[in-house]
Amino acid sequence: MAVEEIHAEMVSSVWKVLVQPGAQVSAGDTLVILESMKMEIPVLTESAGTVQELHVVEGEVLQEGDLIAIVAHS
Fold this sequence. Notes:
By secondary structure, this protein is mainly β. The protein is about 0% helix and about 55% strand. It is built from no helices and eight strands.
């Protein structure tokens, strides 16, 4: 089973969390929406799978490289 680690690409805040651990996701689904410099940035999964871990909460400030989620692909 492959595991995808999803990290923040820039300093941003977590505007909205759209999934919870255990959720089934499809390729291209939005997991969370980040906000940086008044722009909304969707964070997508690359492949279908199950959200194993979610490491952020709404309102949290992230630094570049912070872990957002882990998705297991079947």
